[in-house]
Amino acid sequence: MRLGFPSVDRLRARQGSKWSKFPPGVLPVTPAESDLAPCPAVDDALRGWLHDQRYGYPLQEERGPAEALRNTFSRRMCVAFDWVPDPRDTQLTVSGSQALIACVLAYSGSGDGVAFHTPVFPALRSAVENAGRRPVPQPMLQRQGRFVLGEMTPEPGEARMFLLCNPHNPTGRAFDAEELGALARWIEREDIVVISDELHADLMLDGRRHKPFAKLFPALAERTVTLCSPSKAFGLGGLGCAILHFGSRELEKLFRTRIPPELLGEPAVPSLLASEAAWRSGSDWLQSVTGLIERSRNSFMEQLAGRAPGIRLHAPDATFFVWADLRGLNAPERPFDLMLRKGRIAASDGAHYGDGFDGFARFVLAMPPERVHDLVSRLVSALPTSRGIC
Fold first, then answer.
1. Whole-angstrom Cα distance, residue 280 to residue 228?
2. pTM of the full structure
3. What is the mean pLDDT of residues 167-176?
4. CA distance 104 to 333
5. How confident is the model at residue 390 (pLDDT cuts 50, 70, 90)?
6. Distance between CA atoms of 93 and 98, rounded to whole angstroms?
7. Residues near 160 by beta carbon (within 8 Å), at least 6 away in sequence
8. N or C: lower Cβ tally within 10 Å for the chain?
9. How far is CA 73 from the centre of its chain?
10. Same structural domain for residues 56 and 189?
11. Strand pairing class (90-93; 242-246)
12. Tens of pLDDT along 284-308?
């Protein structure tokens, strides 16, 4: 399916945070949002909403848009990932960040330790800290140019829950069964709840297929809450809709006991309709998107390998991110500051992703080919070059 690419002027006119936060001339490659025109199925759903003037509160019972989304979620997980979650065991929320902090509040107590891998996307760590819990970061290891999961190192009882991000933000890793198996054994041994953030599951690259944690480890399904949304793959972040799936009725009951439903609010009708349309009718469009991301990733890495070999890039298995290590450059100031000041590039600062990642940056590459070339040229002009590429 042919993809559309709005002009820079059109992107800025939308007044979204990505293209409006910085002045003209700056190339934004953050936040986690593509530069593509919307999926046609989503456009059609929203045009129908406008035409029918469906501005009232959504019907929550059977036949309503919320129920339609829950059922479509279950069918989508079955077709895409061979996982059949019960649509009745779900909770709709307005955003992934809201879902994360609600789960932290529901399944841990004040001052409890909450473990997660680093580098970590800032919203996940913020959910832990803002809930009054104690972060227990677990650094990933670098082996043969890849970030991999190492052995879990908390003392017994130090962590009361675990936040998993798979596919991983920011490294783009899709963790394999062996890596996740070691984590699963630790989770079972510690007898804790795991929140599996799978927001980027639709963006698998190179023919890979996502394996939901609850599907991969049936013995742990009853202690797993899975977070899903079409927002990343289909560019629906501003509409606001995410789904929590509870692996057991006990988990769901505890969540509803501790989190009043009024605190979560309700996704509005257009977000429900757009999300349902994306998962129901957007597969062909999504296949074109993942093909574009693969080409953008390959072009970006190949060009920089020849022109700026001092930038060490980590090729993603999934997502539209490339995680870059800029520490090997002999830069007179922080590479991130140089990129913004000299290259006029607004990337994500690695310093926000955990201790030890100042000198890293995250780039979003869901963009037209000419913008990838522009990004490479700006990087080469802004940063000194040396050393090698992963």
1. 15
2. 0.95
3. 98
4. 38
5. very low
6. 7
7. 107, 108, 109, 112, 113, 114, 192, 193
8. N
9. 17
10. yes
11. antiparallel
12. 999 999 999 999 999 999 999 988 8
- Provide the sign of the torsion angle of the four alpha carbons 176, 182, 186, 188, taken in this order: positive
- Residue 389's pLDDT is 38
Neighbours of 386 (CB within 10 A): 12
Q: How does residue 388 score in pLDDT terms, banded at 50, 70 and 90?
A: very low
The answer to whether residues 296 and 193 belong to one domain is no
Distance CA 284, CA 267 (A): 26
Question: How much is the CA Rg of the chain, to the nearest whole Å?
Answer: 21
Domain annotation covers residue 389: no
Chain centroid to Cα 41, Å, comes to 22
Q: Give the torsion sign (CA, 20, 128, 199, 375).
A: positive
371 and 277 part of one domain? no
Q: Could you report how far apart the first and last alpha carbons of the chain are, in Å?
A: 32
| CATH number, domain with residue 230 | 3.40.640.10
Q: For 195-217, what is each residue's pLDDT tens digit?
A: 999 999 999 999 999 999 999 99
Encoded tokens for 3: 């993809």
- pLDDT one-digit tens code per residue, 305-340: 988 888 999 999 999 999 999 998 878 889 899 999
Residue 217 lies in a domain: yes
Write down the pLDDT at residue 61. Answer: 72
Question: DSSP per residue over 227-275, as a string?
Answer: EE-SHHHHT-TTT--EEEEESSHHHHHHHHHHS-HHHH----HHHHHHH
Q: Is residue 390 domain-resident?
A: no
Asked whether residue 228 falls in the same domain as residue 376, the answer is no
Is the domain of 257 the same as that of 109? yes
Q: Looking at the domain assignment, is residue 24 inside a domain?
A: yes
Number of domains in the chain: 2
47, 277 Cβ separation under 8 angstroms: no
The Cβ-side half-sphere exposure at 161, using a 13 Å CA radius, reads 25
Supply the range of the domain harboring residue 13: 8-38+283-382
12 & 77 share domain: no
